[in-house]
Amino acid sequence: MEEKSIGKEILEWVYCIVIAIVIVILIKSFIGVPTVVKQSSMYPTLVQNERLWLNKWGATFNKMPKRGDIITFEAPTKREIDENHADYEHPVAVYEYTPNNVFSKFTYYTLEIGKVSYIKRVIGLPGDHVQIKNGDVYVNDEKLEEKYLQDFVKTYDLGGKYVDIVVPNDTVYVLGDNRGESVDSRRFGCIPIEKIESKAVFRFWPINKMGGIYKDVR
C-alpha cells in the first residue's frame, strides 16, 4: 500500500508539472511574455536592459498592427539586400529557414531556440507609399511627424535599397528609432504579417519609467 501511495504521489506531481508547462507554453505563445531590451536600435524610446511586456494576442490571429506600434518579429534571413537581389515590385524581407518537422517547429517557434527577433516601429501599412528623403520620412507624400525621435535625428537611407516603395499587401514597413544604427526595412524590406510575434505594450522596469510605451506618430 505504501509503495502504491508513493507511486500515486509521484504520478500526481508529474501531472501537475506537465499541466504547469502546458499553461506556461499557452500563455507564452498566445497571450504575452516579458522580455529584456538587448539592442540599441530603438533608443531613446527603449534602452538596453529595460524590461517590457509583449502582447502576443494580436499576432496570434495575424491582426494588422497600427502605425506607430512597436513590434517584435522574426529576423529576416538576409539583413541587407544588395542591388542585384532587390525586388522593387515586391520589396519583402527574405525568410529562407523553414523547420521541416513537428519537433523542430516546436523548438523554433514555441521555445524559440535558435530564433532571432528584432524590435522596431511600424511606419508603413499595406498600400502606403513610403519615402526616405532629405533626412525625413514621408508616407503618401506627407512628412511623418515623429515626436519620439531625438530632435537632432535625421533619417537617411544608410545604403538601403528600399527607401522609396509601396508597402505590399499583408506586410508592414518598420524602422528603428535610432535611425543611424538600426538595421530595418530600408535594408531588408517589409515584414510579412505572419512573421510578427508581438507588440510591446508596457515597460515594467526600471520602476521610474514604468508605464505604456510612447508611440505618437502622425
Give an overview in words.
- The longest helix has 30 residues, at about 1-30.
- With about 220 residues, the protein is of the alpha+beta class.
- It has a single domain (about 35-210), classed as Umud Fragment, subunit A.
- It has helices at about 1-30, 55-60, 100-110, 185-190; strands spanning about 30-35, 50-55, 70-75, 115-125, 130-135, 135-140, 140-145, 165, 170-175, 190, 195-205, 210.
- Strands 1, 2, 3, 4, 9, 10, 11 and 12 form an 8-stranded antiparallel sheet that branches. The chain has a 4-stranded antiparallel sheet with strand order 7-6-5-8, with no helix packed on it.
- The mean pLDDT is about 85.
Q: Which helices and strands occur, and which strands form pairs?
A:
Blueprint lengths: L1 H30 E5 L14 E5 L1 H4 L9 E5 L27 H9 L6 E8 L4 E5 L2 E4 L2 E2 L20 E3 L4 E5 L9 H4 L2 E2 L3 E10 L5 E2 L6
Antiparallel strand pairs: 1-2, 2-11, 3-4, 3-11, 4-9, 5-6, 5-8, 6-7, 9-10, 11-12
The string of secondary-structure elements, in order, is HEEHEHEEEEEEHEEE
Question: Would you count the extended β strands for me?
Answer: 12
pLDDT averaged residue by residue: 87
The number of domains is: 1
**What is the CATH third-level topology name?**
Umud Fragment, subunit A
Reported CATH architecture: Ribbon
Radius of gyration: 21 Å
* Unreliably modeled segments: none
Instruction: State which percent range the strand residues make up.
Output: 25-35%
Shape: globular
* Tally of helical segments: 4
Could you name the CATH homologous superfamily?
A: Umud Fragment, subunit A
Intertermini distance = 72 Å
CATH class call: Mainly Beta
Largest sheet: 8 strands, antiparallel
Helical proportion? 10-25%
| Structure classification | alpha+beta
